[in-house]
């Protein structure tokens, strides 16, 4: 509902600005703008049709991503919160190791490493990215052909928290939908 209101307000602002700009009435310019807007609307409609619509997923659930890289489904299989990985201790309180599965449901070749840049938030809304310690896990790497599945892990360092939110596509609403998994520390193995 909020997205619909935001879309309507944005449309009204764009319409008002476009109508008030009397110096830009060149027919070629208007044709290009119309084509660009139609393309953008089609792409946004495609992304919106696969959004989770504020649905929060849990461990074991599958969500569908559609972005500039392609279409793929992500399943969070298992989450482990631990004090060390391969005898390394975190700079923060804990390591959060997430086992996942990515299935290429589109028709383009995907690279697993491109798909796993994601964010983990704690109960205080502090965000961490999964950029470090990749050499200590079964990293999600390699090509994923259409119809194929790739499994692996992503790893975060984070603060102690009663719950976490794992978000794919965060901050990328113009080129991707957003998927959110919510899990408590108790739900992690």
Keywords, separated by commas or semicolons:
24% helix, alpha+beta, four-stranded antiparallel sheet, 33% strand, globular, Immunoglobulin-like, 189 residues, 3 helices
Q: How would you describe what is shown here?
A:
With 189 residues, the protein is α+β, with helices and mostly antiparallel strands. The chain has a domain at 62-184: Immunoglobulin-like (Sandwich). It has 3 helices and 10 strands, in the order ααββββαββββββ. The two termini are 36 Å apart. InterPro entries: DUF4352 (IPR029051), Immunoprotect_excell_Ig-like (IPR029050). This is DUF4352 domain-containing protein. Residues 69-168 form the DUF4352 domain.
Low-confidence stretches: 21-36, 38-43, 46-53
User: What is the C-alpha radius of gyration, as a whole number of Å?
Assistant: 20 Å
User: What is the CATH T-level topology of the domain at 62-184?
Assistant: Immunoglobulin-like
- Kindly report how far apart the N and C termini lie: 36 Å
Tell me what portion of residues adopts beta-strand conformation: 25-35%
| Strand segment tally | 10
Portion of residues within helices:
10-25%
> Kindly state the mean pLDDT as a whole number?
79
Number of helices: 3
What is the element string, with H for helices and E for strands? HHEEEEHEEEEEE
């Amino acid at each position: 509902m909020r997205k619909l209101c935001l879309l309507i307000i944005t449309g009204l602002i764009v319409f008002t600005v476009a109508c008030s700009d009397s110096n830009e009435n060149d027919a070629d310019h208007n044709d290009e703008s119309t084509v660009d807007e139609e393309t953008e609307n089609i792409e946004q409609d495609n992304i919106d049709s696969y959004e989770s619509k504020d649905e929060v997923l849990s461990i074991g659930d599958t969500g569908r991503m559609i972005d500039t890289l392609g279409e793929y489904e992500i399943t969070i299989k298992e989450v482990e919160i631990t004090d060390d990985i391969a005898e390394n201790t975190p700079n923060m309180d804990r390591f959060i190791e997430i086992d996942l599965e990515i299935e290429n449901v589109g028709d383009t070749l995907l690279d697993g490493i491109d798909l796993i840049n994601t964010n983990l938030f704690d109960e205080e809304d502090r965000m961490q990215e999964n950029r470090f310690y990749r050499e200590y896990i079964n990293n999600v790497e390699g090509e994923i052909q259409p119809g194929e599945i790739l499994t692996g892990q992503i790893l975060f360092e984070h603060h102690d928290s009663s719950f976490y939110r794992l978000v794919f596509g965060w901050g990328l609403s113009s080129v991707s939908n957003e998927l959110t998994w919510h899990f408590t520390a108790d739900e992690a193995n």
